[in-house]
Amino acid sequence: MRFLRATLAAALAFAPALGCKTGPDLSADYAQTARENYELAIGEFTDKDWEESIQYADFVRIRFPFSRYAVEAELLIARAEFEQANYITAQDAFRQFAKLHPTHEHTRNGWASFMAAASAFMNAPRGFFLLPPPEQRDQTPLREAMVELRYYFDHYAGTITEGYAVKLRDEVKRQLLMHELYVAEFYLDRNKPEGAIGRLETAHDTYPGIGLDAEVLFLLGLTYLRMDEIELARNTFTELQTQHPTHHHGKQARVYLKYIYDDFGPSDPNRARPDRSLPVPKPPKEPKNRDRPAKPEARVRPEGTTPPASSSPATP
Question: For a disulfide at 93, which of 4, 78, 180, 202, Cβ 3.0-4.6 Å?
């Protein structure tokens, strides 16, 4: 995590101090021209007075919308929001800047798009001793960071900022994988391997090569074994032992492979597999006589009475 913070600091230093609120504070002492107000905004940003910097930049953006300083003011506002830890606002500001100003230098080199992803990442849960670990909490900001990063790599791969984006993507994937492993272990601890298998299979296919492959393969092998998927478990432990022979899970894999061989014999590709299809719910029973109209109840006439005369006119 410390390494990623250094990466973000380097990315922030990559852009010079260039560039929401609904409008400027009219009680402030504004200058006459867009350039003068923008320079005041830069000065406040340098002094880390983020609110004052946003006020001056917002004044430039609203009062001088066709000035080139208005564009730089938008970027400065996004940076000031990021520095104030208003990451949701900063994410939206960086994203909008990249879409509205495609020819700007910091759009063409991918920096604005990268900062949108970095803002979403910074909004993700952080470790704190009074709260559950980050992998046990809401992962929505990390998924939003992945969306921003996919947009970055679709549009700005190969630019000068790609190295920063690769490091950020690896860290986001690592944290998302930690969440998948937590959920899988949650189901395994409650003896519900069916709930864990989808998470682990997805993790194995989606997050390879980020330093947790041995953990994923080991849990995947255990889950297959609990589900009586003997050959899948054998193949998974074999892959784990082959790819990570010195890892402690790789050493455990040899023990499980011996157990599988002793109890189930050599590999048999024709071995019967358990039924993993989802149960099909039965439709509710139809009520009897559903299409038959209900018979009107017969009225019982008291004994000794005569039926009433017909109200229809008599026929001549």
Answer: 78
- Which of 70, 60, 53, 55 lies closest to 25, judged by CA? 55
Q: Does 62 share its domain with 109?
A: no
Q: What pLDDT band is residue 274 in, cutting at 50, 70 and 90?
A: confident
What range defines the domain where residue 28 resides?
Answer: 16-84
pLDDT tens digit sequence for 68-89 = 999 999 999 999 999 999 999 9
Sign (positive/negative) of CA torsion 213, 5, 126, 20? Answer: negative
The confidence score (pLDDT) of residue 138 equals: 81
With respect to residue 113, please indicate whether it lies within any of the assigned structural domains: yes
Domain count within the chain:
3
pTM exceeding the 0.90 threshold for the entire prediction: no
Q: What is the CA radius of gyration of the chain?
A: 34
pLDDT in tens, 218-272: 999 999 999 999 999 999 999 999 999 999 999 999 999 999 999 999 998 888 8
- Are 66 and 89 in contact by the 8 Å Cβ rule? The answer is no
Alpha helices in the chain, H assignment, sequence order: 2-14, 34-46, 50-63, 68-83, 87-100, 105-108, 111-122, 140-156, 162-189, 193-206, 213-226, 230-243, 248-264
Residue recorded with tokens 């604005």: 112
Q: Which of 133, 171, 134 is nearest to 7 (CA)?
A: 171
- Quick check: is 283 in a domain? no
d(CA 50, CA 33): 21
DSSP notation for 93-137 = HHHHHHHH-TTSHHHHTSHHHHHHHHHHHHTS----TTS--GGGS
How many other CB atoms are found less than 10 A from the CB of residue 166?
14
* Pairwise CA distance, residues 92 & 159, whole Å: 22
